[in-house]
Amino acid sequence: MPQSRRNRREILHGPDICRDQIEQKIIRAYVQLAVAQDCNDGFRIVMLARFGGLEVRLTKTPQAGAPPSLPSYWLEIYSRKSGSTIDRFECLEFDEGELAAAVEFVCRAKQRHQALN
Question: Organism's domain of life (predicted)?
């Protein structure tokens, strides 16, 4: 029996999120970026996870007009309380190594939340 949408959300936002779930969520967010609506500045953003007041977001750089120094993608830990990015991980294409590092980055966001509470 498939999980309901509500149950999936609880797992992805809950304290017991596992590495496999994180990896699957990153891959789904990566695919969602292809159909996500552009922000005013041309960036596309998908929220990956929420741990209390911290959000993990995946951002895609606009293809046109972006400086070549900008990475293609990045994950960021965003604090809703301060309204600012508190950490960022840059990616080029999410190959196997970058995906593993991205999973670690999300795990650190979870650990930060747990340390704050």
Answer: Bacteria
